[in-house]
Amino acid sequence: MKKQFMNATLGIAMAMMSCAGNASTDEPTMAEIMALIKSQQAEIEALKKLVRQTDQKVEDTADAVETIASSTESYAKIASWADKTHIGGYGEMHYNDKKNSDNEIDSHRFVLFVEHEFTDDVRLFSEVELEHSIAGDDKNGEVELEQAYIEWDYTDNHNATFGQFLIPIGIINETHEPDTFYGVERNSVEKNIIPATWWEGGVMLSGEMAPGFTYDVAATSGLETPTDGKDAFLPRKGRQKVSKATAEDFAYTGRLKYTGIAGLELATTLQYQEDIAQGKGIDDASALLWETHVIYQAGGFGLRALYAIWDIEGDEAEAFGRDEQEGLYVEPSYRLNSQWGFFVRYSEWDNNAGDNDDTKVEEWDLGVNFWLVENVVFKADWADQKNGEDSFNLGVGWSF
Q1: Would residue 315 count as lying in a domain?
Q2: Ramachandran angles phi, psi of 55, nearest 5°
Q3: How many structural domains compose the chain?
Q4: Which residue range forms the structural domain that includes residue 14?
Q5: CA 353/CA 26 separation, integer angstroms
Q6: Can you tell me the distance from the alpha carbon of 184 to that of 206, in angstroms, rounded to the nearest whole number?
Q7: Which residues contact 192 (CB under 8 A, 6 or more apart)?
Q8: Which of 168, 212, 249, 362 could form an SS bridge with 216, CB 3.0 to 4.6 Å?
Q9: What is the SS3 assignment for 218?
Q10: Are the C-beta atoms of 374 and 335 separated by less than 8 Å?
Q11: Is the pTM of the predicted complex or chain greater than 0.90?
């Protein structure tokens, strides 16, 4: 373009020289000279305009490149966040046809959880649950923060957990998605004795001591059981759920687990709480909980068995017959194929095992699971209780 501009300028100069050289023979008129100059000037202005347009296009292109680079950087940040953040959840709806009380249909729970990896060694895990469909004043449901903790891999095969987490005890307390267990309802022993689902706030150290051997050691908030009335010293009624939880006395939990043989899990947990009543004017209400279980899976055959017992000190707990509370269950099952599975379960538990009355509840459960796909299950079972409530139950559950 600069070359074109120079050519135009040179043209004007040559024209003027030509006019001067021929002045003696054929001298152009002033009008012709002015016309030539105007023609060349127009061409120069056109070239200048073209230069300006070209400069603007170059500037626009640079802006566009910068915008694309900025957008690419933003997209990369979003992609990086999405790659490190995982969303999941589960839910279940039940129908209970009860022998001695009203039948019910209930959206029992809907749960969402979010996990985020800050680094390869530090991650957040959180879980929010809505129970019984709707929460609020005079409503049946609750909105609960079940888990919210930071997990830090401080060395190979060992990690620390800080925040609100599930107590490492039993079979279903940590793994209770509906497609992972048999039966519409969670088993009565772990619900009434342990009591699942049970979470506290505190700190926990976990790791692998040897191939197949793992440990968990936790110091957390504890239960605060009532000390009088029909709910006195019942573990399930003492869950504070880390909601302005009284922390006069803490709970200390330790678990050992062995999974060194394919299909086998053996575990035992001890928990000691300094005062299960959290200082409600009782001289001594220290409590010791012991739980042990086995899970075995060989082909289609499965077996779960669990035993748990509380030993609560103090005259007050003894007066209610609740200084000792215990329960056990045995559950064989058989998975016919990827969709059909059957189970039978025998359970017994007694929250008043410290007295001489016949307060033990026995229950037989018989049922079937049908997995529509891997993480969607339909369930049906019959529960027959001695000293309790018989029921026919239907359910649908899912996890993702």
Answers
A1: yes
A2: -60, -40
A3: 2
A4: 2-73
A5: 135
A6: 32
A7: 235, 236, 327, 349, 351
A8: 168
A9: strand
A10: no
A11: no
